[in-house]
Amino acid sequence: MAIRGVSEATDKFHDECGVCAVLGRPDAANLVYLGLYALQHRGQESAGIAAFDGKELHHRKEMGYVADIFDRSLLDELPGFAAVGHVRYATAGNSSLINAQPMVAKTHRGQVALAHNGNLVNARRLRHELERAGAIFQSTSDSEVFLHLLARSQAATLEAALLETLDAALGAYSLVVLCDGRLFAARDPHGFRPLALGRLDETWVVASETCAFDLIEARLVREVGPGEVVELSGEEPRVLRRPGPGPHAHCVFEHVYFARPDSRVFGEDVGAVRERLGERLAQEHPAAADIVVAVPDSGVPAALGFARESGLPLALGLVRNHYVGRTFIEPRQAIRHFGVKVKLNPVRSAVEGKRVVLVDDSIVRGTTSRKIVMMLKGVGATEVHLRISSPPTIGPCFYGIDTPERRELIASSQSVDEIRAFVGADSLGYLSERGMLSCLTTPAENFCTACFSGNYRVLDEEDRADVVAKEER
Length: 473
Known about the structure:
The N terminus and C terminus are likely disordered. By secondary structure, this protein is of the alpha+beta class. Helix 5 crosses helix 6 and helix 9 crosses helix 10. The chain has a seven-stranded antiparallel sheet. A six-stranded antiparallel sheet has the order 5-6-7-8-12-13, with helices on one face. The protein has two domains: 233 residues, Aminohydrolase, N-terminal nucleophile (Ntn) domain (Glutamine Phosphoribosylpyrophosphate, subunit 1, domain 1, 4-Layer Sandwich), CATH 3.60.20; 158 residues, Rossmann fold (3-Layer(aba) Sandwich), CATH 3.40.50.2020.
């Protein structure tokens, strides 16, 4: 497992991956393409689609955005009634085409395409065992472990082999598997990552988030339950393994930041949850101020809630440039805060002479928060009170989120007042863990808060030793 760190340009946790699958339409790949387009926020490094036409598995994957990779002519080369797709941001394995998904292989069980969102905490140990047994890996992604386990299983049926494979995996996985036209969906027993089932007429659709259903006008049927394994066929999914009893470990950061606000995740509307986070934040950390300003786009729902609860007006104080590409040419002459200013620009007329409450969802290293605070003061804000709609982030994630090592997280070694001084804010308030969990209708024990609390529900022994070693360094 490799934790590659957070981009200095964004100073944000990166979304993990997104999966989408369709069964029962002659244009399955086209629908998957649209689903991946809606899930682009979950991974921007690579994208891929595999489609089965009854005889052959056709597939294509490239580095880059979904819309830049797939055009009409390319989708025409992916015929079939069943397809799976994936968007990726590397959380385990290098950022390279060899690690792009879906993972595809020819096995004695048939042609297999597999797409995975999550991280296996025992991937390194399983990989070593498989290599000692003669397996030859083509990638550095932990997702390839699933393929080798499935191909090497001695179980009599595909269903039994899949269950045996999942029994060996430890950690986070929301998984879709296409094998010779049969489509399966599975979720780890803790339910770390979301996975939903939808219907479009007689067609089955699977996606990481319901916003993918909205784009193709499919309706949400239900979520795949934690620990559940289903085959998509007929009027109802064929359940191979029923959901486990819990307690579960849903990633609370899906509600804080990762999922799109128009999605429904873990049984709740994400946007509504984020507004409640903002309301609770205003109760816990009120500020004597004139306006509320959101850090767009992820801070907007919480800022709405904060403004409503505090009675302060919400102002458009920062504008985001939505057309920033993956790379851009920096000017030869130095421009202060260029990396942030190319993405965000303050609105002088809105903030000049005002005391500002600045609402964001998280602070990672603090470098971007510092630059935004300085930008607002640079155009005349008299005070900037920074409010964060989640608790201080003190630890890395091992379950499918790209996070820095502990020593790079500013809250792991500095107090709230020290962070406030570093970012240059007049005051700083984080939402408490208790307050955050109170904004969710699901019981608190069913959420993973490891990055805030250090309470890791699932770790392989080797990885547990790594955590201890990193804490001691």
